């Protein structure tokens, strides 16, 4: 065969090889593997800003949250416009005080406690230093005569990566109701969630069936990277782990700690964790 007759095909082969190399090096349209994001998350049942002795001091709660230096915090037992908490919009006040964005899930929405006052609300909240792109609150199964509970979900923006951050507070005195609430949470978050964090006061110990329902799809951060028993309740004499940070399997927990510097700020201790979140692969 004439060697010259092979030249065009050889040129095409070399051009294709160069093109593949350019794509691997970051040519337009290539999928780029971005570095994972580090995210500090926390959960805190703030007891409507009152101490175990029922002394109202929302500034004290704000200082505890501030000291955690978290990117995003899930709060439980949050008031808006209640007499017991000075008719303050607590999520709004904390957001402004801490320079954080906020979202609020009203699980109770009741008549005002005084003429001309706004309706009083009670539920959970998200405080975030990262942008909150959207949020929604879904009511969970309710047994007659009990308190309405909910799942507050916020979509956060982490430099191009979106994370679902959810906060809840399960029923305190009925394990059957908690089991139904946990099952509903799994339905809402999905059986194989990604880039998802669930935090909250779950009112059950780790061995309880309702907790196992959740840890069937999410990892309990504390056993993986925490030290000690992780007891969060009650804050002054901790004897039970009721407050949890749960993360989807693609998230790597790095640290988990209780914050005990001011245990009388609420009746629960806050928990904080550093997580490594995989970045979304971007098109160049």
TrEMBL record:
Keywords: Hydrolase, Signal. Residues 1-33 form the signal peptide. Residues 42-268 form the Endonuclease/exonuclease/phosphatase domain. One of its GO terms (molecular function) is hydrolase activity. This is Metal-dependent hydrolase. It comes from Streptomyces hygroscopicus. The lineage of its organism: Bacteria, Bacillati, Actinomycetota, Actinomycetes, Kitasatosporales.
């Amino acid at each position: 065969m004439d060697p010259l007759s092979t030249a065009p095909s050889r040129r095409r082969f070399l051009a294709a090889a160069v093109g593949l190399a350019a794509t691997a090096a970051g040519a337009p349209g290539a999928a780029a593997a971005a570095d994972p994001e580090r995210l500090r998350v926390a959960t805190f049942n703030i007891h409507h800003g009152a101490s175990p002795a029922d002394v109202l001091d929302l500034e004290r709660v704000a200082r505890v949250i501030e000291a955690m230096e978290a990117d995003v915090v899930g709060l439980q037992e949050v008031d808006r416009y209640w007499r017991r908490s000075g008719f303050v919009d607590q999520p709004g006040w904390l957001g402004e005080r801490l320079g954080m964005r906020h979202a609020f899930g009203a699980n109770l929405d009741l008549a005002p406690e005084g003429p001309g006052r706004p309706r009083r609300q009670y539920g959970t909240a998200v405080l975030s230093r990262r942008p909150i792109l959207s949020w929604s609150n879904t009511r969970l199964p309710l047994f007659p005569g009990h308190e309405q509970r909910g799942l507050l979900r916020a979509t956060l923006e982490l430099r191009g990566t979106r994370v679902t951050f959810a906060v809840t507070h399960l029923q305190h005195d009925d394990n059957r109701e908690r089991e139904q609430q946990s099952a509903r949470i799994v339905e809402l978050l999905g059986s194989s969630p990604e880039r998802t964090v669930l935090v909250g006061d779950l009112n059950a110990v780790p061995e309880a069936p309702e907790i196992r329902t959740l840890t069937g799809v999410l990892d309990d951060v504390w056993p993986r990277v925490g030290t000690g028993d992780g007891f969060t309740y009650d804050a002054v004499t901790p004897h039970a782990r009721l407050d949890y940070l749960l993360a989807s399997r693609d998230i790597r927990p790095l640290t988990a700690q209780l914050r005990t510097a001011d245990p009388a700020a609420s009746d629960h201790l806050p928990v904080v964790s550093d997580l490594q979140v995989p970045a979304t692969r971007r098109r160049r």
